[in-house]
Amino acid sequence: MKIGSVEVKTRLALGPMAGVTDLAFRQVCRELSGCYTVTEMVSAKALCYGDKKTPTLLKLGEGEHPAAVQIFGCDEPFMEKGAALALERSGADIIDINMGCPVPKVANSGDGCALMRAPEQAQRVAAAVVRGAAGRPVTVKFRLGWDKGSINCVEFAKAMEEARRMEDAGVSAVAVHGRTKTQMYSGSANWDYIGQVKQAVSIPVIANGDVFEAKDAVRILKYTGADMAMVGRGAFGNPWLLEQCAAALEGREVPPPPPLPARMDAAARQFALALEHKGEKIACLEMRKHLSWYLKGVAYAAYWKEQACKIQTAQDFDRVTAGIRRDLA
After folding, report:
1. What distance in Å separates the CA atoms of residue 95 and residue 138, rounded to the nearest whole number?
2. How many beta carbons lie within 10 A of that of residue 226, not counting itself?
3. What DSSP letter does each residue of 66-126 carry, written as one string?
4. Cis before 239 (ω within 30)
5. Quick one: DSSP state of residue 235?
6. How confident is the model over 311-320, as a mean pLDDT?
7. Catalytic site residue 309?
8. Kind of pairing, strands 12-14 and 2-3?
9. End-to-end distance of the chain based on CA atoms, in angstroms?
């Protein structure tokens, strides 16, 4: 498929998730599956104001192409300038706009999913990002609507497509999470509305929500008619889900879940990448939750999950993973 002028040779995407899909985790997932990747969301205002922490979120891994960088905001001038800065600093092929984040501190500021309550403003924001992107494709990720009484994803998708026509290029695909803002991540994703979006627009549609097994990736595309399946929370501590989904979508035999030693190998690979790009302190802090996720479903893992949450140094990480291999494998 193509997103604007960019050819994407996979029907599988890893969804952008703040605090999870950093360079290290994306690279592990991509090495296993060849999936399309999107960075964690980045504040356009923070970019424009020169925030020192923001550029680290924009880094792409070696060979991480095609890939997108995601920005959020609701002020047109900041979004236009932020788009240009994000692309310049990341070297990404595509820029994605977050119009679906349900977190109160984001939505209550008029950003993220709040833009679904102001479609005309959202359209202007999309057009501004298209200008800032200077010819590179722009995509938009959003939800079904604010709540079950105001589901407007079909009309919203049409407005995004109209922004494309307004600027003569740009909004080249949309990603739809099958939940409302008020649902957050509870309940079940409604794929019917994603299918309605696909029927309503001529640009590619990426389907997101409740892809927890390989068969779900196949089923969501068949059910909705969407062009690409996006994996989100199912990948927590389980990058092999991407590998399994890729196999299923390509009609290959789905590999079984890996044994615990292989999980620890992947965790070590992720930690090494995080060390390289973030330094020991941040890598250790962020790896605490990831390592606990890697132990999900492992019998008698409570003690080592507790130890994982105390990691402060690379030596601690090595000690904990060695203990896991020794006691649980």
Report:
1. 5
2. 24
3. SEEEEEE-S-HHHHHHHHHHHHHHH--SEEEEEE----HHHHTTT-GGGGGG-HHHHHHHH
4. no
5. G
6. 97
7. no
8. unpaired
9. 41
The length of the chain, given as a count of residues: 329
**Could you report the per-residue pLDDT of 260-279, keeping only the tens digit for each?**
999 999 999 999 999 999 99
Could you give the 3-state DSSP secondary structure of residue 84? Answer: helix
Which of 29, 35, 74, 101 is labelled catalytic? Answer: 101
The tens digit of pLDDT for each residue in 74-92 reads 999 999 999 999 999 999 9
Task: Indicate whether 180 pLDDT > 60.
Answer: yes
> d(Cα 286, Cα 289) in Å, to the nearest integer?
6
Q: Using the 8-state DSSP alphabet, how is residue 172 labeled?
A: E
What are the tokens at 84? 């240009």
Question: In 100-215, where do the E strands start and end?
Answer: 138-142, 171-177, 205-208
Amino acid symbol at 170: G
Strand 2-3 relative to strand 6-7: parallel, antiparallel, unpaired? Answer: antiparallel
pTM of the predicted structure, to 2 decimals: 0.94
Q: Is the Cβ–Cβ distance between 294 and 263 less than 8 Å?
A: yes
Q: What is the pLDDT of residues 187-209, one digit of tens each?
A: 999 999 999 999 999 999 999 99
Using the structure block, give the residue that is written with the tokens 């790896």: 287
Residue 55's Cβ-side half-sphere holds a number of Cα atoms within 13 Å equal to: 9
**Confidence (pLDDT) at 165:** 60
- Provide CB contacts within 8 A for 24, sequence distance 6+: 270, 271, 273, 274, 277, 278, 283
Residue 33 has which token pair? 């599956």
In angstroms, the CA 146 to CA 141 distance is: 14
